[in-house]
């Protein structure tokens, strides 16, 4: 028996919230319905999608792989429904967006392409800046919406958010690294390693906070605002990196291989999403951009 769209929706909600109870609450359904859906999917797929621990659930690597397919399926279903919706009139006007550096390259371009195809009469502008400044612009009404990392918002009470993706941290290693030969990598194994830091979208700060909380004082070999520089430095053995799976690619620009591995323990996940000012009236263009982003999940 194949899984259903509803079961996929429940699975995605659990991945987003990291908790069956919060996922059930967000969808106004019973916890048992969510639990049964996840159990069915794990049985049907033959893999463990979540690790259970005292603080809730954390998605496994296999679970994250399936999450990408699940969100793609739900996006196509939403697109099919949108294609059959007849609009009374074409949307026009303007749309002012904010985007953080990392999201500009990995998330926004696809959303904008879909939005422009659906709304060719809308004038779209975008500004790239750090998350804290984009929050300031959103609250001040200077932006309609922003695509950003929403796991560490500064003013959550003033903003409405929509989660688009949940991306766990993974360890990037060069070919031949000693840790690649281990069946399981622990946080303690990172002691003494040179760390390459990506200092955009609060990635560097998040990695430092993570390791400090686990009692580790990493040696910073290099700080950069370029993802490609991180890939090149890791691939050539200058250090290792802890980054969300969202930005992982197996090759550097020079063609050198990069391996990614899970680290045992409850590493956090980055929530990628969209934010807009809570309670503010939304233009037709903004509403449609939000709808397209929701369908993109």
Main attributes of the structure:
globular, 11 strands, alpha/beta, two-stranded antiparallel ribbon, 9 helices, single chain, seven-stranded mixed sheet, 297 residues
How many strand elements? Answer: 11
Amount of beta strand: 15-25%
As a percent range, the share of helical residues equals 25-40%
* SSE string: HHHEEHEHEHEEEHEHEEEH
Radius of gyration: 20 Å
The number of helical segments is 9
Largest sheet: 7 strands, mixed
The first-to-last residue Cα distance is: 24 Å
* Shape designation: globular
Mean pLDDT: 84
Structural class: alpha/beta
Low-confidence runs of at least 5 consecutive residues: none
Give a quick summary of the entry.
The protein is α/β, with parallel strands linked by helices. It has helices at 5-17, 20-27, 31-45, 61-83, 101-118, 131-139, 203-213, 227-235, 284-295; strands at 50-53, 56-59, 93-99, 122-128, 145-149, 159-174, 194-198, 219-224, 241-244, 258-261, 269-277.
How would you explain this protein's 3D organization?
The chain is α/β, with parallel strands linked by helices. Helix content is 40%, strand content 24%. The protein is built from nine helices and eleven strands. The chain has helices at residues 5-17, 20-27, 31-45, 61-83, 101-118, 131-139, 203-213, 227-235, 284-295, and strands at 50-53, 56-59, 93-99, 122-128, 145-149, 159-174, 194-198, 219-224, 241-244, 258-261, 269-277. The strands form three sheets. Strands 3, 4, 5, 6, 9, 10 and 11 form a seven-stranded mixed β-sheet that branches. The chain has a two-stranded antiparallel ribbon with strand order 1-2. It has a two-stranded parallel sheet with strand order 7-8. Strand 3 (93-99), helix 5 (101-118) and strand 4 (122-128) form a beta-alpha-beta unit. It is globular and about 60 Å long. The protein starts with a helix and ends with a helix.
């Amino acid at each position: 028996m194949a899984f259903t769209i509803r079961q996929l929706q429940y699975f995605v909600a659990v991945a987003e919230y990291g908790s069956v109870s919060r996922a059930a609450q967000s969808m106004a359904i019973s916890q048992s319905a969510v639990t049964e859906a996840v159990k069915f999917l794990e049985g049907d797929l033959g893999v463990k999608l979540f690790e259970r621990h005292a603080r809730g659930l954390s998605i496994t690597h296999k679970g994250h792989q399936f999450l990408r397919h699940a969100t793609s399926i739900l996006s196509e279903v939403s697109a099919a429904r949108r294609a059959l919706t007849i609009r009374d009139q074409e949307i026009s006007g303007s749309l002012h967006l904010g985007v953080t550096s990392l999201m500009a390259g990995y998330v926004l371009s696809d959303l904008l392409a879909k939005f422009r195809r659906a709304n060719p009469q809308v004038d779209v502008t975008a500004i790239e800046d750090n998350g804290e400044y984009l929050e300031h612009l959103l609250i001040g009404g200077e932006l309609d919406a922003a695509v950003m990392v929403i796991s560490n918002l500064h003013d959550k009470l003033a903003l409405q958010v929509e989660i688009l993706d949940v991306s766990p941290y993974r360890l990037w290693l060069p070919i031949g690294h000693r840790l690649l030969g281990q069946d399981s990598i622990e946080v303690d194994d990172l002691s003494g390693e040179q760390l390459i830091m990506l200092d955009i979208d609060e990635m560097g700060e998040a990695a430092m906070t993570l390791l400090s909380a686990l009692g580790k004082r990493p040696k910073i070999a290099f700080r950069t605002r370029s993802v490609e520089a991180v890939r090149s430095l890791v691939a050539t053995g200058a250090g290792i990196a802890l980054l969300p799976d969202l930005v992982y690619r197996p090759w550097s620009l020079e063609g050198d291989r990069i391996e990614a591995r899970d680290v045992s323990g409850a590493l956090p996940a980055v929530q990628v999403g969209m934010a807009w000012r809570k309670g503010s009236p939304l233009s037709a263009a903004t509403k449609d951009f939000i709808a397209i982003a929701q369908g993109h999940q």
